[in-house]
Design goal:
Layout (H helix, E strand, L loop, with lengths): L1 H7 L17 H6 L3 E8 L8 E10 L4 E5 L2 E5 L4 E10 L4 E11 L4 E18 L7 E19 L5 E15 L14 E14 L10 E11 L9 E13 L4 E14 L23 E12 L4 E13 L11 E13 L4 E9 L4 E7 L6
Antiparallel strand pairs: 1-2, 2-5, 3-4, 5-6, 6-7, 7-8, 8-9, 9-10, 10-11, 11-12, 12-13, 13-14, 14-15, 15-16, 16-17, 17-18
């Protein structure tokens, strides 16, 4: 009874920010123990262009790292813990169910990400054939996914080092005779991939940064002794850099590349990943791309975003010069949804080489 009266006397959760009186969910996230039920529209062109997802998410703020360096106390912000699940369905009958957690063991200075999923994916891949350039091949994938990454802070720096692991058990279906680029072993197979990670992250915010840099490098091996049906190596690297050029303008630069060695399954080959370009549309043994993005904060809550980028996918580095440049660009808007978390949401409209696409943005498009 006392507990009931105590809860009844609690101050109602406000959806107005205490500073400007505008709509804001910061207090709701904090008072509801971080619970945010997120409805999400899926707009990926490769998955039918439209779908719907529900993602119940718990966000819990972490205390900062507190270190004493040469007699000076230094406080380093720590990203919040995020725990959630996703159930999704798209117009081309793709669906998935997943659960994940991203967090930090503050005392041990360890960041981690763990997740699992089951997915039924309908997706097309494109290859040049003697009969037709860029012929489309439609596949169905049924896959079980497991992922784990853990990195530990190096001394008092913003550098982290650790490991990552990926597990996939996949059934591939194709109507008709398998294309030449698909091997018979890929119809039903297991990927077990282990890698080492090195990362620098001094961004001021993990959701929508205003300044700072994130640099990431990981090298991976898939081998029979790990339980994999494939023998290959993979290198992934990327950098996001942000700078606040004025009180109202933030600029960002992205550099992203991947390299596969030996013979991974066709659905794990590197590809151009940019707004306006369908996933896996342009593949190769390697890819590299760059993007620029500008955010103009027109008024304190509302912003306009401009972006553009280009990249190439190719099989050998001596083919880089002759490989086709893939170009995309567009514009969008953002609204500061949770000021205390630095979280902005919005919509982007992008044009790639072949089609228009739109994207619902939660935080940032550059999230890995």
């Amino acid at each position: 009874m006392i507990s009931f009266l105590s809860n009844a006397q609690k101050k109602p959760v406000s959806f107005k920010d205490s500073l400007d009186g505008k709509f804001d969910v910061s207090d709701y996230i904090i008072e509801a123990n971080g619970f945010v039920p997120i409805p999400y529209i899926i707009t990926e062109p490769a998955l039918g262009g439209f779908g719907f997802a529900v993602a119940p998410v718990f966000i819990k703020r972490n205390p900062p790292y507190i270190d004493t360096i040469r007699g000076q106390v230094k406080r380093t912000p720590v990203a919040p813990n995020i725990t959630g699940g996703v159930v999704a369905y798209t117009l081309n009958n793709t669906w998935l169910a997943s659960a994940f957690r991203s967090g930090t063991l503050v005392k041990r200075r360890i960041k981690y990400v763990i997740g699992g999923a089951y997915a039924n994916i309908n997706m097309s891949y494109f290859r040049n054939t003697p009969q037709e350039e860029d012929k489309e091949f439609a596949f169905n994938f049924k896959t079980i996914v497991g992922f784990l990454q853990a990195t530990k802070r190096i001394s008092f720096s913003n550098w982290y080092a650790g490991f990552k692991y990926l597990f996939l058990n996949t059934d591939v279906r194709y109507k008709g005779t398998l294309p030449d680029f698909v091997k018979s072993q890929e119809v039903h197979s297991t990927v077990s991939q282990f890698g080492l990670v090195l990362e620098l992250d001094n961004r001021d915010n993990v959701f929508t940064p205003n300044k700072g840099v994130k640099v990431h490098l990981d090298g991976n091996i898939s081998a029979n002794f790990l339980g994999s049906d494939y023998e290959y190596y993979r290198l992934n690297y990327y950098m996001y850099a942000y700078a606040q050029f004025s009180k109202k303008f933030v600029g960002g630069w992205r550099l992203d590349g991947q390299q596969a060695f030996q013979d991974p399954p066709f659905y794990l080959l590197p590809y151009i990943d940019m707004r306006g370009v369908p996933a896996s549309r342009y593949q190769g043994q390697a890819d590299i791309l760059t993007e620029l993005e500008g955010r103009w904060d027109v008024v304190p809550r509302w912003s306009i975003v401009f972006f553009g980028g280009t990249g190439k996918a190719f099989d050998e580095w001596n083919e880089f010069g002759s490989a086709k440049w893939i170009v995309s660009g567009g514009t969008g808007f953002r609204y500061m949804l949770a000021r205390k978390f630095g979280l902005r949401v919005g919509i982007d409209l992008a044009r790639g080489p072949e089609t228009w696409a739109y994207y619902i943005v939660f935080g940032s498009n550059w999230l890995k």
